[in-house]
């Protein structure tokens, strides 16, 4: 609405109220001295009418604004007829008084807007600013960790120049250094790195459950010295250092659902027995009717989420990559990633990486795979049942909150302490999880 209203058809100068801009900024043109004197407009009434019109225009109610404006203009056009009955006795109306009351009406309008509109007004950050904020927050947290001498800091041997970072993958063509974290789209990116190396899809599919081993054939393990050189290189082409993260408890629950409840390998089927042995001192839980020692069958008892959590907390030396912490897997305080991709905003964040690497997202160019991003979302460890699969699909979507509610308060606090650095480094909020155990 470029013009909210226009008033009158006076032969002389007219009182003109216009709302310009985006339909939300009322502006009053100054009344000329002779019009004010001629019609002897009661300025207080005029200012209040103006404020009402401005509020109506602000909220886009043009019909109400016109009605209010009509009443305002009627006072002007009928001033001659009503003469002294309208004017304030023994008081000369000046342009200055009109302006003062108009300003007062404008301030009233602003005060109403401050009370009504949500503050601060929502705005959208650029993706560059978002990534800069994430990286800066991580650096600040790392400084705090170093200052406090955090006990979970990396072993001193990791500071050696020849120390190998087995989860780092350097893609020289696109100048990308990626730290792989299991359960955070790692299979999808292994697939993509292999395609960039020219590996045929058929070969990738044939070794889907050992994707990392295949990828290492084309991407040697970088040393600490290699990574230091990449970080110090500020001249183009600059290496984009990135990793992918998600809510730490979402990842932990996902590991339980996909590897313990529905294991796709014998290793994790056998892990069920070790969980029971650690928690109960027997291969099966108390009261179980399954007395056999063969854990290969799907009908073998499944450890509860509480049992699995207790096993992980008691055996910190079992550093399975599917539930090991981001801090241990990637040493982010050393990597100092320039881009942090969150699974919650995956598509937007990945598009930013592709722009930095000058990679096309036209996915399906088989003959030029090295220059494309195919965007496959692989879940090689995820077995998703169909709705009619004996209720399995319903269990697949058990939420993180539902699973955490199965823990005792003491277990939950120990689990949070295990992943506290991940929450802090990557700006994840755990308050809604703690709310599960509030008694007030």
Description of the molecule:
Strands 3-4-5-6 form a four-stranded mixed beta sheet. The protein has a two-stranded antiparallel ribbon with strand order 1-2. It is mainly α and about 450 residues long. The relative contact order is 0.10. A hairpin with a 4-residue loop joins strand 3 and strand 4. Helix content is about 50%, strand content about 5%. Residues about 1-40, about 60, about 80-90, about 290-295, about 365-370 and about 375-395 have low confidence and may be disordered. The chain has helices at about 35-40, 45-60, 60-75, 80, 95-115, 125-150, 185-195, 200-205, 210-215, 225-230, 250-260, 265-280, 305-315, 325-330, 330-335, 345-355, 390-395, 400-405, 410-425, 430-435; strands at about 15-20, 25-30, 170, 175-180, 240-245, 340.
Q: What strand order characterises the main sheet? A: 3-4-5-6
Count of DSSP-assigned helices: 20
Spatial gap, N to C terminus: 51 Å
Mean pLDDT, as a whole number? 76
Main sheet summary:
4 strands, mixed
Structural class: mainly alpha
Number of DSSP strand runs:
6
Percent helix among the residues? Answer: 40-55%
What is the C-alpha radius of gyration, as a whole number of Å?
34 Å
Low-confidence stretches: 1-41, 58-62, 79-88, 291-295, 363-368, 377-397
Strand content: 5-15%
H/E series: EEHHHHHHEEHHHHEHHHHHEHHHHH
Shape from CA axes?
A: globular
